[in-house]
Amino acid sequence: MSLHDLLATSFVQHAFYAVTAVAVAAGVVGYFVVLRRQAFAAHAIGHVGFAGAAGAVLIGASPIVGLLVFCLGAGVLIGVAGAALDDRDTVVGVTLTAALGLGVLFISLYSGYADAAYSILFGQILGVSSTDVLVVAALSLAVLVVVSLTFRPLLFVSVDAQSAASRGLSARTLSLLFMSLLAVTTVVAIQVVGVLLVFSLLVAPAAAAEVLTTSPIRATLLSVTLALFSGWTGLLLGVWIGGPVSFWITALASGSYLVARLLERSRPLRVRPVGA
Amino acid sequence: MNVVESRGAGVSLGGRTIWRDANFALEAGTITAVLGPNGSGKSTLLNVILGLVPASGGSLEVFGASPRRGNRRVGFLAQTRAADSVGSLSGRDYVGLGFDGTRFGWGRDRAKLDAVRQAIALTGTTSYADRPIHSLSGGQRQRIALAHATVFSPELLLLDEPLAALDLAAQAEVVDLVHLIRDRTGATIVVVAHDLNPLATIVDQVLWIARRQVRSGSVDEVVNDEVLSDLYGHPIEVIVTPRGRRVIVGLEEEFAHPHPHGHDHSHEDPHEHLAEVYEEETS
CB-CB: which of B77, B78, B88 is closest to A210? Predict the structure, then answer.
């Protein structure tokens, strides 16, 4: 079967649409994850999703429903507790561990143990159905609409919470909103790269973009571009050369970040002051 | 009408009185320095004016009405600016957030470009406004932060410790800039500070907060032996140097800790602790 034939198959086309939707949403939300220094929260929500997906598989429901329930729950929990407490990372870490433990229990109770665990942890992009694609596309679109409507206040609170509060913005409400957006984005990203590699689409492209440009709009667009590049090229390489698609996507996204940091070093203006 | 008027207002946090019976008025277009020991409630006063903390007892009015959150006539420069750590934004983008950062929805305000350009010109930051904030010096960041706080033309500007952590040359530049902003925009300005001397030349009025009391008046009316001794309950001497600077003898303990929110808890002052806890909750 030639590459051309492979690309024409329905499972590759489904994968292409899913990757596209996911990359756009993850690129946009990822910019705020990086700006707010909430990479750890993004990581944790993915792991909580593991428990949700495993639980759903166990009771015979669709994994995406379990993912949504658990990720949104974790997002709200982290959003509420994290805004009130100084040791945000501790709250996130305990939530993460508790959920992983639950996930291990659920998956051990399920007979198809290894297969189910593998696809949740590392993604199974070539297995997405047309229904999955529709769900992923709808969720991504919803995330995009909400982010575009709240872009300025979200940016303001993320950059300078005290000034934003003095102007009447509620850091708590916006934090909760953002964690919900992050949860939904994590759910769709898990469809492509799995729980363990969520970072590759959610953090790496945005981190590279933030290093390369100062403008929030340009950084968001660049983040989306890099996520799309990693997603599309990764899918192509997985189909063409072989190997897991999530491996290729992760390698490309991490590579973009590495290149961005190298470019940054060669530009004198971007030197960070010591301790900043 | 006074811009801010307090008639017997006080503040309580968690059941404890921070200060009470404050009687003062801020007249339009004046610059007021707010002085006093760490944790005496200087920042809390700004939070009351911003409507983030309710006054208890008496009345405190801002532009003739109760303080309310998000009042577009009031601008605020926080003591620690998060923009210092999330400095990948350019100064210009950060200033722009001061103009329309609270706006939800699509579309943009055409007046934004002009307002941002004017704020940047006023604060003398044009030559580095497009550089990322993390590449700027402390003094440059403070000027950008002032542009951010004034870009929407507030009539009342609250500055919380704008001189903290700056060297003397940068302090003098910021003081000159505050003076310039008042002259150009006619804004009423409140400056929380640790030391009166850098500000003495531009200040019209002083509010001194200590031991739950607030005293107000001109520099000479407040910063003298009688008023400060009465305020603190022990003898205090104010010595005026030939160049007009004031040395305060008897308060060395309180000014021995230049970093009010560091983690030095060696001295036991319950009010300071309370104020710190409180500020963490509202930050």
Answer: B88
The 3-state DSSP class for residue B242 equals coil
Q: DSSP code of A272?
A: P
Judge whether A228 lies within some domain.
Answer: no
Domain span at A150? 3-196
Entry pTM: 0.88
Kindly list the domain boundaries of chain B, sorted by start residue: 4-73+154-219
For residue B56, the number of C-alpha atoms closer than 13 Å in the C-beta half-sphere is 12
Q: How many separate domains does chain A show?
A: 1
CATH number at residue A178: 1.10.3470.10
Query: What is the rounded CA–CA span in Å between residue A67 and residue B213?
Result: 56
Instruction: Give the minimum alpha-carbon distance from A80 to chain B in angstroms, rounded to a whole number.
Output: 13
Any chain A CB within 8 A of the CB of B76? yes
For B43, what's the count of Cα atoms within 13 Å in the CB-facing half-sphere? 26
Handedness of CA A189, A191, A193, A198 (dihedral sign): positive
Q: Is residue A222 in some structural domain? A: no
In the numeric block, which tokens belong to residue B75? 């601008």
The number of beta carbons lying within 10 Å of the beta carbon of residue A143 is 24
Residues of chain B contacting residue A37, judged by C-beta atoms under 8 Å apart: 86
Helix axes A171-193, A63-84, angle to 10 degrees: 150
User: Can you tell me the distance from the alpha carbon of B256 to that of B242, in angstroms, rounded to the nearest whole number?
Assistant: 24
Total length of chain B: 283
pLDDT tens for each residue of A68-90:
999 999 998 888 876 665 667 78
Digit-coded pLDDT (tens) for B142-199? 999 999 999 999 999 999 999 988 999 999 999 999 999 999 999 999 999 989 999 9
* Chain A residue with the nearest C-alpha to that of B128: A269
CB of B127 less than 8 A from some CB of A: no
Whether A276 and B85 lie within 8 Å, measured CB to CB: yes
Candidates B69, B84, B97, B161, partner chain A, best to mutate (most A CBs within 10 A): B97
Domain assignment of residue A223, yes or no = no
Q: Is residue A208 one of the residues assigned to a domain?
A: no
pLDDT tens-digit series, residues A217-234 = 999 999 999 999 999 999
Location of structure tokens 């009687």: B23
Which overall architecture, per CATH, does domain B4-73+154-219 show? 3-Layer(aba) Sandwich (3.40)
B56 DSSP β-pair partners:
B10
